[in-house]
Design goal:
The complex is a heterodimer.
Chain A (H helix, E strand, L loop, with lengths): L10 H17 L2 H21 L4 H17 L11 H17 L28 H12 L4 H12 L4 H8 L3 H19 L4
Helix pairs in contact in A: 1-2, 2-3, 3-4, 5-8, 6-8, 7-8
Chain B lengths: L17 H8 L4 H13 L1 H20 L9 H15 L22 H13 L3 E4 L2 E5 L7 E7 L8 E3 L3 E7 L2 E3 L2 E3 L4 E4 L8 E2 L5 E7 L3 E3 L1 H10 L1
Antiparallel strand pairs in B: 1-2, 2-3, 3-10, 4-11, 5-8, 5-10, 6-7, 6-9
Helix pairs in contact in B: 1-3, 2-3
The chains are: A mainly alpha, B alpha+beta.
């Protein structure tokens, strides 16, 4: 597995990215933009290719996203999201608008979309930045086979049955492993052991 | 496979929706993305699950093997920035308050509001039966997306669908053969299901419906619908 090869941005690096965003917003600093570009543009291209764009189209999309980062820099709020999340969101929305590939939902009978709201669930008192820190820390503790499944579902956007096929696992196993991993993350947010 | 009723929460082992992971990854059809975003705006539990999904996606986005870029990629981006600054087109602004009839639309949750305001200004609401109006939302080529407004106590004509229909209650509520649905609740109906939703009596019901097949009304309204398209 090459999963750990490229390490995710650490807290120090994340702070530096946030500082670069501020310099772009306030000073229109081109050096700060170049720094963000160096880290994010190759990952944006990789993401777009992952979702089916050919290399030259993927590079164009990465360019467009980075230009948007410059234009909207003053809208970035470090209390609400990390720079990675904010940039990824721009890319994802760009992609939802552009590709319009239909992912036909196949809902599980236990699907929470079909669940009435649980009145005992309090509105989260965590802000987005805190939630992100907790989930990131918890992700680091997951075994690599769970991370691979999460990658297939949340980054590659595969359905559970597509994952079952590509990992050669029974569908029920895929569902229960993803549920297990997700519940571990959720448990951390709720303060469970 | 399709399910025609609300499934109660299994507290010991709540499931995770594939819609949220597909949304986080950017693979969801825009109509279903709107459905997910609207449900999140209405429900804190969905908001949290979606936020978590996004963090998982982002952490893999960071971990992914970076792709090779053209040598002058960063300069091309800076050139594009300079070119855009030179032309500096003013942003498009959503229309405001063209009519008092849109008052209700202003109370819609954010993901829906602008879209509904544009649609109301464009084609507008269509009369679909006594006490029943619908507003087509131009979201997706693949899935039909509409906002329904049902007067209190009014029954939507019994209908079936070609494909599946996802109905999210935005405000008010309705009851059909399978149960009662309030704000944030989603009803999923498949081709085999024939149902007749009745709006609650305490106020109009506004619901967002996404269908991947046509909706067929039965009876007199069905005939009228076929005539007026």
């Amino acid at each position: 597995m090459r999963l750990k090869a490229a390490t995710p941005a650490d807290p120090v690096q994340r702070q530096r990215f946030a500082d670069s965003m501020a310099k772009i917003a306030v000073d229109r600093c081109r050096a700060s933009f170049a720094e963000l570009f160096e880290y994010f543009a190759p990952r944006l291209k990789s993401y777009m290719q992952q979702l089916g764009a050919d290399p030259s189209h993927a590079e164009e999309l990465a360019q467009e996203v980075m230009v948007t980062v410059w234009r909207k820099a003053e809208q970035f709020d470090p209390g609400k999201a990390s720079v990675s999340t904010w940039i990824f969101r721009i890319a994802r929305n760009r992609r939802i608008d552009a590709h319009r590939r239909t992912q036909r939902p196949e809902l599980d009978p236990d699907d929470p979309m079909l669940r009435p709201p649980d009145p005992e669930t309090p509105d989260t008192t965590l802000n987005r930045a805190q939630l992100e820190d907790i989930v990131r820390a918890q992700l680091e503790t997951l075994p690599s086979e769970q991370l691979e499944l999460l990658k297939a579902a949340f980054y590659q956007g595969l359905s559970h049955s597509e994952i079952a096929k590509s990992f050669n696992l029974p569908l029920g196993t895929v569902k229960s492993r993803i549920r297990l991993a997700f519940n571990r993350l959720r448990g951390q947010l709720e303060g469970d052991p | 496979m399709y399910w025609s009723k609300v499934v109660s929460a299994n507290k010991a082992q709540p499931a995770f929706s594939e819609l949220y992971s597909a949304y986080a990854a950017g693979c969801l059809d825009p109509a279903f993305a709107l459905l997910v975003e609207t449900q999140a705006a209405l429900r804190p539990d969905v908001r949290r699950d979606l936020a978590m999904s996004e963090v998982i996606a982002v952490s893999h986005f960071e971990r992914a093997e970076p792709a090779e870029l053209d040598d002058d990629a960063v300069n091309r981006a800076l050139d594009a920035i300079d070119a855009a600054a030179a032309s500096n087109a003013p942003p498009r602004v959503a229309l405001n308050g063209v009519s008092s009839a849109i008052g209700e639309l202003l109370d819609l949750p954010a993901p829906l509001k602008d879209l509904a305001l544009f649609a109301a200004g464009d084609d507008g609401w269509k009369f679909t039966g006594p006490g029943l109006r619908r507003l087509a939302l131009p979201v997706s080529d693949a899935a039909e997306t509409e906002l329904f407004r049902i007067e209190p106590g009014v029954a939507v004509p019994r209908h079936t669908h070609e494909g599946s229909e996802f109905t999210l209650v935005v405000s008010g509520g309705f009851t059909d053969e399978t149960g009662s649905f309030g704000p944030g609740d989603l009803s999923v109906k498949g081709p085999a299901d024939c149902h007749q939703p009745v709006a609650d009596r305490d106020g109009p019901c506004i619901a967002l419906a996404v269908r991947d097949g046509g909706l067929r009304f039965q009876g007199v309204i069905g005939i009228v619908q076929r005539l007026i398209g």
